[in-house]
Amino acid sequence: xxxxxxxxxxxxxxxxxxxxxxxxxxxxxxxxxxxxxxxxxxxxxxxxxxxxxxxxxxxxxxxxxxxxxxxxxxxxxxxxxxxxxxxxxxxxxxxxxxxxxxxxxxxxxxxxxxxxxxxxxxxxxxxxxxxxxxxxxxxxxxxxxxxxxxxxxxxxxxxxxxxxxxxxxxxxxxxxxxxxxxxxxxxxxxxxxxxxxxxxxxxxxxxxxxxxxxxxxxxxxxxxxxxxxxxxxxxxxxxxxxxxxxxxxxxxxxxxxxxxxxxxxxxxxxxxxxxxxxxxxxxxxxxxxxxxxxxxxxxxxxxxxxxxxxxxxxxxxxxxxxxxxxxxxxxxxxxxxxxxxxxxxxxxxxxxxxxxxxxxxxxxxxxxxxxxxxxxxxxxxxxxxxxxxxxxxxxxxxxxxxxxxxxxxxxxxxxxxxxxxxxxxxxxxxxxxxxxxxxxxxxxxxx
Length: 447
Ligand code: PHE
Description:
Layout: H1 8-19, H2 22-34, H3 38-66, H4 70-77, H5 82-85, H6 91-118, H7 124-136, H8 139-158, H9 161-188, H10 192-201, H11 210-223, H12 230-235, H13 244-272, H14 282-294, H15 297-333, H16 337-357, E1 368-369, E2 372-373, H17 374-401, H18 404-415, H19 419-441
Antiparallel strand pairs: 1-2
Helix pairs in contact: 1-9, 1-13, 1-15, 2-11, 2-13, 3-4, 3-10, 3-11, 3-13, 3-17, 3-19, 6-8, 6-15, 6-16, 6-17, 7-14, 8-9, 8-15, 8-16, 9-13, 9-15, 10-13, 11-17, 11-19, 14-15, 15-16, 17-19
């Protein structure tokens, strides 16, 4: 089965679209707040460059050389023990599991576009009530907007690599950048900007625990879409003459710049109106809407634009979360693309409803085990267990298993003198960092 190809720019946009998501705008600012601002940002930037860049090239290479779905890629590329290695390709399942809760959060965002258009909450406590009512009682509302997220994502994936995913990203990503750009220029001229800047870039080392380090690596993977099969499956559609080094630098730069810009904009608004930076996941859904209200008319406009941008970021990532298993069904079982998209769509749609129910007051107790509800379990299993494991598998696979000749002949022309540095990092630094993260995030060892 031959996989369709992106255009070169289409590939870059799609890969950036996958990377830039809720992780950048929703998650990055609040974990930065939790783990001490500047110190966390520095560690995060370091891990992005050291581990993120290294593993991204490895993941791209597996897709580029294999040209098939994740399972088949590992199977065909492994020189021996194929039966064993092919199981590493199940990392593609991780993305479908992430999509279960990702789609629910996109639903919240779509709902907040309407909240922003109709009536913003006038204070933090009102904003808290609005959010908690949606979360704990708004079953119908959440299912309604989750359905919209499901329909859009499935339709785009059903239209295929070129006619669906590439086109979608080519429109939504520039729109997202434009919106953030406008908000950044506005924020730049506010008094709160310098406070936001020093908050994000002045390190407070005392808050930098080993846990913060593990969270930084985990987030670097999540935000760069590494270890989920998304980048791998897109790279299987990278034109032969495409350059993996340029592409990954482009993705990393784009993703990092957008995270930093989003953080600066958010914190400027918060500081300007005296709101607290560290508010956990409620930052975007509670603190921010209240601040937008205080900003007056411009706040109304910005709030709609902001949630729109967030929805764009989420949806372009969502299609890349669904694609790995869609491609698997097409490749392995000869499904038509439409049928595969519907099957995978229904998978995340139905489990997404379970994720919603697991936070609704009356059904939550039945869907909570060991202190975590179904929604939290999906997040925990994917980002703390499956993701570092997949990262490790890829680093070992490309670093030790595939014939070195193949790696050299493909990447050396693109990397030049940098090749040995990358190869060293892949074989030694990335695996060690990932083992530490795995042990730390699963709580087996706290270093
Ligand atoms: N990178 C996306 C984000 O930051 C999430 C994502 C993870 C998308 C894995 C695809 C694959 O939100």
